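User: Please fill in residues for this 429-position structure.
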């Protein structure tokens, strides 16, 4: 018997949800068969079987979300002994060892919850699942004797605490304590308020919950600062128009303004490599400066925000960038992006100009050090020499991690980007 566990399907994934089971209990499974579709923080991906046998049991229902390494199914391979299956994904996933559900280790790169301590200050060792249960149920783990390896507290050790009646805390006599609101009355008050608002509870998808958590963590933990610049994009518009005429005549795909901006940003990163960097952690005395320039393109699809990555963007022509970007966006909209296509980014561009947005700020996509938020182009009256002429102008804002990028460096990056946009033939050269 083989225990199939939740695999890691992206570099930021800590948990996944079962989207669709393709095999039911009793079905024959061959190596390479699609067992299940798994929804991650970035996309829905197929998980292939690495062993042959008969699917014995589904341990996780469709729509249910579990941590990486948690058992999701049992595969009968003819052997009586349960053999844990390495959690290896079919789409370039990072292999991790399987672990029992009660004792899952934190996902690689995810911060481990602080270990509880006894009243004497001794540290208690508990699995992440137990810590989660303790937080949600207000359990005092100092009362528990761990039976796991090395005295580790596992799920089975908390059964007694979970079965206990909640302890009523009596306030000191010197403090005035407001009378508790009866549950029925509180529920009624909430219902009345929601009726007044005309509210409807809409379930969040697994991807939306993970996006909310990751971006919330980014906004809370990364000291963002913002630098904004505006470029005269008239020459960029004229160059794109002429270029597309020639491309159409040659039966080749057109390029977009965003394709030119990806190329310009990549060239600016080449001139300012310290923007193409990542902060490690507070304990490290180093930061990571990336020698490859891999530009992520934020895509707001029907399933949520995803960021496919164009590798070595500074080494590709505008036409190549345009072709690759269109292909990635199409895959994003159909939830067919692979883990490899969404990992390894060093810088991200988010363009809302097509929605009529003039200017905005974006949240950094960890572990990158910066993100460029691009607004739309508009015709403005501009003084050119001694004349006032209509010119296309574009505004963009760099969000930067102040732990590794200072204001002067961010300003120099935007200065270079503006120079490239205003002299667009240098983007093509």
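Assistant: Residues filled in for all 429 positions:
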């Amino acid at each position: 018997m083989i225990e199939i566990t939740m695999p890691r399907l992206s570099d930021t994934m800590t948990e996944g949800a079962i989207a669709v089971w393709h095999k039911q209990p009793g079905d024959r499974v061959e190596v390479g068969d699609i067992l299940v579709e798994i929804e991650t923080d970035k996309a829905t991906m197929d998980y292939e079987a690495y062993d042959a046998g008969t699917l014995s049991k589904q341990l996780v229902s469709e729509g249910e979300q579990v941590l990486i390494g948690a058992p999701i199914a049992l595969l009968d391979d003819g052997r009586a002994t349960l053999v844990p299956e390495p959690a290896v994904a079919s789409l370039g996933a990072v292999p991790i060892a399987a672990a029992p559900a009660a004792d899952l280790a934190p996902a690689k790169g995810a911060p481990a919850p602080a270990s509880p301590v006894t009243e004497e200050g001794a540290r208690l060792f508990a699995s992440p699942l137990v810590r989660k249960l303790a937080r949600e149920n207000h359990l005092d783990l100092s009362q528990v004797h761990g039976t796991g390896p090395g005295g580790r507290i596992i799920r089975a050790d908390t059964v007694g605490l979970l079965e206990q009646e909640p302890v009523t805390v009596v306030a000191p006599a010197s403090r005035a304590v407001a009378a508790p609101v009866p549950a029925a009355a509180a529920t009624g008050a909430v219902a009345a308020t929601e009726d007044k608002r005309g509210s409807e509870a809409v379930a969040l998808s697994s991807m939306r919950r993970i996006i909310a958590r990751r971006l919330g963590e980014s906004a809370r933990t990364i000291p963002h600062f913002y630098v904004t610049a505006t470029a005269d994009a008239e020459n960029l518009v004229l160059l794109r128009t002429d270029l597309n005429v020639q491309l159409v005549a040659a039966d080749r795909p057109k390029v977009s303004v965003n394709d030119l901006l990806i190329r310009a940003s990549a060239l600016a990163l080449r001139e300012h490599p310290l923007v193409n960097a990542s902060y490690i952690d507070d304990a490290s005395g180093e930061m990571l400066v990336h020698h490859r320039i891999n530009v992520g393109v934020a895509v707001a699809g029907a399933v949520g925000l995803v960021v496919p990555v164009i590798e070595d963007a500074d080494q590709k022509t505008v036409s190549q960038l345009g072709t690759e970007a269109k292909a990635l966006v199409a895959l994003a909209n159909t939830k067919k992006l692979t883990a490899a296509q969404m990992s390894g980014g060093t810088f991200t561009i988010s363009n809302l100009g097509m929605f009529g947005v003039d200017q905005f700020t974006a949240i950094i996509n960890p572990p990158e050090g910066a993100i460029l938020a691009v607004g739309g182009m508009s015709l403005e009256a501009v003084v050119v020499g001694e004349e006032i002429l209509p010119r296309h102008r574009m505004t963009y804002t760099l969000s930067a991690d102040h732990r590794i990028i200072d204001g002067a460096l961010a300003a120099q990056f935007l200065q270079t980007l503006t120079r490239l946009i205003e002299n667009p033939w240098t983007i093509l050269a």
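For context: Residues 379 and 391 are 5 Å apart (CA to CA).
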